[in-house]
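USER: For my understanding, would you kindly supply a protein sequence with its structure tokens?

ASSISTANT:
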Amino acid sequence: MAQEIRNVIVVGASGNLGSIVVWTLQSTQRFNVSVLTRSTSTAVFPQGVTVHKTDYSAASLLVALQGQDAVVSTIAGAALGEQKKVIDAAVQAGVKRFIPSEFGGNTANKYANDLVPVFARKVEVVNYLKAQSAASPSLTWTAIVTGPFFDRSLKSGVLGFDLQKKSAKIYDSGTRIFSTTTIATVGAAVVAVLYRPAETKNQYVYISSFNTTQTEILAALKKVAGGNWTTQQTTAYAEVLAYRESLAKGSPGAIRNMVMAATYTDGTGSNFAQDEKLSNSVLQLQPENLEAVIKSVLQT
């Protein structure tokens, strides 16, 4: 069967995830890759990538999306709402598949949404996308849920581990299982979804590199990195509340930590293998080894 999706445009392509998605799409040599960037952007993209500038007016978006089979959005933060404009243009341009900027916690879980107010932005976009797709069935969608990006989150300390000081903040018992994905596998999942439009049509797709716990991660760190590690105990729910208060006081840096604390909280749907249905097999994503990934993180 002929491949249905050939022309793909990435929104937010200059960001950490967007750049990986562009590289992964290009490396397959099966897609014509474009990027959508603001008129004022000075970002530079790989050779062979077509750049479409936009001021996010309806007219400029429609021009950029003409002839595109799929839109992959990786924008974040305050710009999440801009996706509605892109969705409207996608409908008019005849785009077949829209992948919104999910790529994180389980925003479809009600309790997670109650704990993490910023999830509402993503839910609003997906609900808008569902409505537009229902009105114009030629536009379909896939929301990819990944959990935290393991390698990036481990290195930045968001998972609760300070690699330099060899210290760990352990949430509750440290044994709550959660799903997490390396950023390379997130890129591979985007490609896999586009390869399989029928199997991934109009649904949330849950993926993970592995399902693990803080206890397992700490044991692997001790084995790979060696040395003496100190631990500090905390309570996941209390941490969520503290970060919510920080965010309310104008500290945007609290968002990632708040999301992570919610991931360690029972009932937030962060163990995709148990709480949802993993699509690793459908997408033919290769399994990864926790210790091997940790060793790679420590070497970079």
